[in-house]
Amino acid sequence: MADEPQQRYSELASFGEELRREREIRGISLKEISDATKISKRFLEAIERNDHKTLPAPVFTRGFVREYARYLGLNSEDIVNRYNFAAAGDDRIEQSTHLERLTQPQALPLPANRAPVRKSIPPPYARIDRNVYILAVIVAALAALSWWALKHKRDVRAEETRTDTAVAAVVPKPAIPPPAPVQDPVDDMLRLTIDVTRDSWVTLQADGKQVLDERLREGDHRTFEAKEAFRFVAVGNAGGVALKLNDIDLPSLGRRGQVVKDKIFDRGTLQELQSEVQRNRT
Q1: Domain ranges in the chain?
Q2: SS3 state of residue 87
Q3: Is 79 exposed, middle or buried (0-12, 13-18, 19+ CB in 10 A)?
């Protein structure tokens, strides 16, 4: 039993050394911990040296130990418990703890001849939390505001209905326009017709896919379809082919012997051709 205080003291000293080792393993300086936790570097050094003359009251020291351990990533509550166990036999800490208890305010006993003062029971309205009254006022105000907004909306709708009725009675009904002329249905597909008058090499794409790449002979007749566009990648003898788009003649691609590249005919081309035909008819 006589060795128990000395054992406690050695455990407390090893506790501070263990904290220092954990800190050094992580490469953390005392200044870094002090800056982060706002604990004086002097107190942190005292914890590691087991210097309780420098440390404040144990209640504050335990808080320092907790923040120290938390910054290192250790279990703060476990470290504080180990500090309490290690410090249990240190007379300096026990005396400081005893002084803390003595300095705490204590309840004074009542004199023997004085009966305790009985507090009167407050009236029912005083026992209701003041927040309840405030909440009731807010609810009543919101209900009144909602009722006013609903009534105003109904009045506005009624006024708009009366105005619309009066305008409808004054303004004559517009004349019904004649039905629009029925237009011919638009062909969904583009059709390209090639009539070869002179031998020519033709490379053609329909909607981006190559559909022709060969030498056409005089007298050849070819027809192709596309949804959006035709593209002549190359025509070896531009004057040797005659073209029609949806049975409408296209202008010549070029002169005899001329090489034409990247010529496109699409729905825009068809609309232009149809408009031109319509103007010629009128």
Answers
A1: 4-103, 190-281
A2: coil
A3: buried
The fold of the 4-103 domain, in CATH, is 434 Repressor (Amino-terminal Domain) (1.10.260)
CB 241 within 8 A of CB 195: yes
Neighbours of 68 (CB within 10 A): 26
Structure tokens that stand for 123 in this block: 């009236």
**pLDDT tens by residue, 110-152:** 444 444 444 333 444 544 556 777 888 898 999 988 888 888 8
111 contacts 100 by C-beta, under 8 angstroms: no
Give ∠ CA 200-203-204 in degrees, rounded to 5: 120
List strand residue ranges (DSSP E) for 147-245, in order: 190-196, 200-206, 209-216, 221-226, 229-235, 241-245
What do you get for the CA distance between the two ends of the chain, in Å?
Answer: 127
Residue among 194, 188, 222 at smallest CA distance from 207? 188
Q: Is 166 left (phi over 0), alpha (psi -120 to 50) or beta?
A: alpha
Q: What three-state secondary structure class fits 177?
A: coil
Interval 203-223: pLDDT, tens: 999 999 999 999 999 999 999
User: Distance (Å, rounded) from C-alpha 30 to C-alpha 44?
Assistant: 7
DSSP character for 28? Answer: -
pTM of the model: 0.35
Question: The tokens of 171 are what?
Answer: 């303004």
For residue 163, which amino acid is it? T
CA–CA separation, 98 and 93 (whole Å): 9
